[in-house]
Amino acid sequence: MTETQDERFQHRDLDWLNFNERVLQEAADKSNPVLERLKFLAIFSSNLDEYYRVRVSQLRQIKKIKKSLRKKLALKPNKKVKQIIKEVKEQQIQFGQIFKDEILPELAEHHIHLIQHQDFSKDQFVQAKLIYQDKIKEHLEPQLVDFEKKNQLFLENNTIYFFITFENCEEAGVVNIPVEQVGRFIELKNEGKEHFISFIDDIIRAEIHEVFPKRKVAGIYQVKMSRDAELYIDDQFNGVLAEKIYESLEQRTDGQPTRLLYDAEMPKELQKKLRKHLGLGKIDMMPGGKYHNFSDFFSFPDPTDNSDLKYEDLTPIPHKNFEATSDYFKLIKDKDQLLHFPYMSFSYVENLIEQAAEDNDVVSIKISLYRVADESALTSSLLKALEKGKEVTVFIEAKARFDEENNITWGRKFEEKGANVIYSYPKIKVHSKIFLIDRIEAGESVKYAYIGTGNFNAETSKLYCDHALFTAHKKITKELDRVFKVLEGELIIPRAKNLLVSPFETRREFTQMILHEIDEAEAGREAKITAKMNSLEDEEIIDLLYRANKSGVKIRLLVRGFTCLIAGVKDLSEHIYITSILDRFLEHGRIYIFHNGGEERIFMGSADWMNRNLNRRIEVLAPIFDEDIKQELKEILQLQLNDNVKARVQDYTGKNEYVAHDEKKPIRSQYEIYKYLQKKHS
């Protein structure tokens, strides 16, 4: 493959589908326990729903731009959507094969049977009828549809429905499937050691004559609508942005349709009638299987309680330094500390906030919250700090997609208790994961900082691989204090010389560090860039990496999600090697290492190499000063770079091929990191 102008960048939305294919690979991997494989199908489905609600809807919005301007900007949304649909259809065929031909038979081998209504025994039919009458019927909202009346039917986002045809009748029936009220799965009575589970869908199918008692059912087809998830709020209006978002949340269910998923068995004539009635285009129609919303499989029950069907538990590793003391402030003041989730417990973070709330010498706590947990020890400690008269400043990101309502609810709770609550700014998000504690010691202010790669959420910390730095280093705490002053409106620019703070210094500093590696390579000296992130999109950074490649800089990247950089192309990126790790935990950390003539510069924090992280979000990346922590991060990152079990090569082929073993010892990095930390903290 050789370079052309069109081949310099992979389209992010197409490469994202490669990421979701890696999720599907995990569902297909027979070395994973069967219930975990089922969860990967749920993740695939959930990812795809959000993708249609956000990314595909954005492509649809481009169609509203005048055709002449679209042509000038080389925007081709229809072409991209058609490519997306083609790829998604192929993935969904694979999805169905994995579910029907592999997972269902394996569940049956373990005495778990997911049965359809036509397979109910007489006793199960009786039980289904009772469940329908007692639990389901009251939540159904059946309606009749006259195809002559356009837009009579409204399908809510991500809600599954049955679309029903009747014999000798032009009207059709529609009824919701009340998953939210009842749950998706119904456990039926056991027969010996055999366990039977049914979709709520099949309970309703079995009783459909009760739903429409005066009509004879001819066909039943499941449908689901995905709607635009973006809130089109004019930031120029007066008023608090948080309030505007809160008031606009209902748009999430009323947004523009981006996909109608329908049972592929639905007759073509019926598809056409439904499409026209809903005002959809052919491009909006996506055939699927008999069942939709596989994200509900997150809640699939295990009536056998068989540990072989799930991943083995990994008990959180006690951090030897935090465990050896009850005075976290002295510990952090003496030496920087580093945590790794989910290998270690988030409780250390909660404990520090609790100590700060109780400590009479602590005068203030400042924290940025991106995705707030419903109820947590951390939020309780912040409320306790307010009760004890401490100054608490909470920055709430009101635009954290799908978490707006919960975030704003918590913001109001903090306000009611006297906190200084600051909400999002127009046109910028605060994505940093930071807090700062101010404590009076011997009459002087001493500040304690936290800079992490993941959200302040105890539940997601059990699923996401993240890193967390605790430090009292004055160069960091002084600059982090300035970051909070920017958030509070006291400063316009934080003037950071050590932290990388977006949208201020980060792009400039990354550019300078890459250029320095280029200079080193061109001078014949060793030059290397090693980086781990979620996604790589920014074209300026990618062009710099291409330039570095041509100069001989060795570039090794770990990118979990999509990458717009195309690796392995002769005369463009042949010295750039990218892998992606997808395993039981979601890789979420961001680490950047620049060789810097042998005096390595290492940064860790919240920012990816994406345009939004560099230009439109408040992000914080911390330099690692402590030599022990530098070494620890490097050793952990090296284990990930060496992964040859769950790592896939990301290059111009787009094949998602696993890294070859080459007769080497299998290295599954997430398990190797667990063993490494066990040894280090024993």
Automatic annotation (TrEMBL):
CC cofactor: Mg(2+)
Domain PLD phosphodiesterase: start-end pairs: 426-460
An MF annotation (GO) of this entry: kinase activity
Positions contributing to ATP binding: 47, 464, 560, 588
Domain of life: Bacteria
Keywords: ATP-binding, Kinase, Magnesium, Metal-binding, Nucleotide-binding, Phosphoprotein, Transferase
InterPro entries: PLipase_D/transphosphatidylase (IPR001736), PP_kinase (IPR003414), PP_kinase_C_1 (IPR041108), PP_kinase_middle (IPR024953), PP_kinase_middle_dom_sf (IPR036830), PPK_C_dom2 (IPR025200), PPK_N_dom (IPR025198), PPK_N_dom_sf (IPR036832)
The EC number(s) this enzyme carries: 2.7.4.1
Residue sites binding Mg(2+) per the record: 371, 401
Top-rank EC class of the record's enzyme: transferase
Entry-linked PROSITE patterns: PLD
Catalytic reaction list: [phosphate](n) + ATP = [phosphate](n+1) + ADP
PTM description: An intermediate of this reaction is the autophosphorylated ppk in which a phosphate is covalently linked to a histidine residue through a N-P bond.
Pfam families: PP_kinase, PP_kinase_C, PP_kinase_C_1, PP_kinase_N
Entry annotation: catalytic residues: 431
NCBIfam families: poly_P_kin, PRK05443.1-1
Function, in words: Catalyzes the reversible transfer of the terminal phosphate of ATP to form a long-chain polyphosphate (polyP).
HAMAP family reported in the protein's UniProt record: Polyphosphate_kinase
Family the entry assigns: Belongs to the polyphosphate kinase 1 (PPK1) family.
PANTHER family (alphabetical): POLYPHOSPHATE KINASE
Name the UniProt record assigns to this protein: Polyphosphate kinase
Organism: Mesonia mobilis
